[in-house]
Design a protein that fits this description.
The protein contains 15 helices and 16 strands. The protein has an 8-stranded mixed beta sheet with strand order 1-5-6-11-10-9-7-8, with helices on both faces. A 5-stranded mixed beta sheet has the order 13-12-14-15-16, sandwiched between helices. Strands 2-4-3 form a 3-stranded antiparallel beta sheet. The chain has 420 residues and is an alpha+beta fold. The protein folds into 2 domains: 15-170 and 226-316, BirA Bifunctional Protein, domain 2, CATH 3.30.930.10; 327-415, Anticodon-binding domain (Rossmann fold), CATH 3.40.50.800. α5 runs parallel beside α9 (228-243). It binds one RNA strand of 77 nucleotides through residues 3, 6, 57-59, 62-63, 80, 111, 113-117, 119, 125, 192, 203, 256-258, 267, 275-276, 278-282, 303-305, 308, 330, 332-333, 362-372, 378, 380, 382, 384, 392, 394, 396, 399, 401.
Length: 420
RNA sequence: GUGGGUGUAGCUCAGCUAGGUAGAGCGCCAGGUUGUGGCCCUGGUGGCCGUGGGUUCGAUCCCCAUCACCCACCCCA
């Protein structure tokens, strides 16, 4: 048998319903903040990601799905979407259009990493980006939008972690200070941190190794190194968040792995998942456009990893996304089928989710089937009912049933439980 | 890429450390008579024991290899 390839999976009902639900809520909430959907290709020139995400990052150096096109062009399946959105902005000269551009996207991304709980090689993200401005209110708006999104999904318990990692003006000085502080104690740091000291000093800051903590606590804070512009931006953002009652934890040790981030970074975590507790992350990337060879275009965005997100949601709200049959139409006697089918059509036209069997079943069997598919109601259409224009509508949960004429039945449909 | 774990019925697993070609629960199907589900009872269906080699008279069980999945690390969100 041919099976799914490693790190990919089929998303089956009811989980697929949960994905669809989470996506529909995102569309609805983001729309209220005036975001439009953008759909970019799932594959791009590999160079796009090498230049934006960073040549030296693991994502590009060993986790990207790259392949050569027939003409020799190096292509890659997108490992994330921010670079593509900025590319699209530049390619279509959107900088010439008035105002800011607010986009959201959703779809599959690809990374060739070893699969793990909630992590796949084809994974799904929902993200949003605002391009064309760097007002701190934009940062606040994006953060507000994503918390509103969580609220709409019924996720109340989460922490917003906030930091600023400066920009190309001020970060080098901080990195230098960090190296200076770490050098004397480097023998005391864990193996990973000793390596990071060379490869990516920033990441020492979010080392989880217990023995490193005392030293890390002594290291300088990025916030003390922000230049005037970055500092002012961050202060203003914090003031706005405070003003709107959006509580956050100042987390100077939270850094980003991707090269393009500047200034604001944020992350939302939830205790519901244990160690891998991050639900989403985002930040500002004011230099990304230029890294891609474009004019200066400021931007900020975030991305939610849906696979893990859905995992959390299914734990706290198991029924979310379920959409069972609302009306099961059971018919009795060979002459009843056409009328039963006609009623089914009419019910469907009013938006009710209906199912009708094509082979005649004993009523007992029909009810049993309806029960197994969690049907809310069963409509019984026998030859007697047709003759009397009086159909039996059975409430499966309550076990009660009532007689209704065709017009009464159709009038009742809007009150059936279930979607819409 | 590294380390550990697991692969037996549709699902969750037992059996394997006394090697003799398999069990439970759930599910599924059919009944418990005539047009009323869920519960209960009865019967039934169902497995090349991941795959390929080896040892053996004989292997689900022992050995080797391989593949897949899971967990963790690395990394990242």
């Amino acid at each position: 048998m041919i099976k799914t390839i490693r790190g990919t999976r089929d998303i089956l009902p009811p989980e697929s319903g949960l994905f669809a639900y989470v996506e529909s809520v995102a569309r609805e909430v983001f729309r209220r903040f005036n975001f439009d959907e953008i759909r970019t290709p799932v594959f791009e020139k590999a160079e796009l990601f090498a230049r934006s995400v960073g040549e030296e990052t693991d994502i590009v150096s060993k986790e990207m799905y790259t392949f050569t096109d027939r003409d020799g062009t190096a292509l890659a399946l997108r490992p994330e979407a921010t670079a593509s959105v900025v590319r699209a902005f530049l390619e279509h000269q959107m900088g010439n259009e008035p105002g800011l551009k607010r986009f959201y996207y959703l779809g599959p991304m690809f990374r060739r990493e070893r699969p793990q709980k909630g992590r796949y090689r084809q994974f799904f993200q929902i993200g949003a980006e605002v391009l064309g401005g760097d007002h701190p209110a934009l940062d606040a708006e994006v953060i507000e939008m994503v918390t509103e999104y969580l609220r709409c999904l019924g996720i109340q318990e989460f922490s917003l972690l906030l930091n600023s990692i400066g920009d190309r003006q001020c970060r080098p000085a901080f990195l230098q200070a960090l190296r200076v502080a770490a050098e004397p104690v480097k023998e005391k740091l864990c193996e990973n941190c000793r390596r990071r000291l060379v490869t990516n000093p920033l990441r020492i800051l979010d080392c989880k190794e217990e023995s490193c903590q005392p030293y890390i606590d002594q290291f300088p804070s990025i916030l003390d190194f922000l230049c005037a512009a970055c500092g002012a931006h961050f202060e203003k953002l914090r003031a706005l968040l405070d003003e709107r009652g959006l509580r956050y934890q100042l987390t100077p040790r939270m850094v980003r792995g991707l090269d393009y981030y500047t200034r604001t970074t944020f992350e939302i975590t939830s205790d519901l998942l244990g160690a891998q507790n991050s639900l989403l992350g985002g930040g500002r990337y004011d230099g990304l456009s230029e890294m891609l060879g474009g004019p200066p275009v400021k931007g900020i965005g975030f991305a939610i990893g849906l696979d893990r997100f859905v995992l959390v949601l299914s734990q706290i709200r198991p029924a979310l996304g379920e959409d069972p049959v609302q009306l099961f139409v059971a018919w009795l006697g060979p002459k009843a089928f056409s009328k039963a089918y006609e009623l089914t059509q009419k019910c469907r036209q009013t938006g009710v989710r209906c199912v009708i069997e094509f082979e005649e079943l004993k009523l007992k069997k029909a009810l049993s089937n309806a029960d197994r598919m969690k049907a809310g109601h069963v409509l019984i259409v026998g030859e007697d009912e047709i003759a009397r224009n009086s159909f039996q509508l059975k409430d499966m949960k309550a076990g009660s049933q009532e007689s209704l004429s065709e017009s009464e039945l159709l009038a009742r449909l809007s009150s059936l439980p279930g979607r819409l």
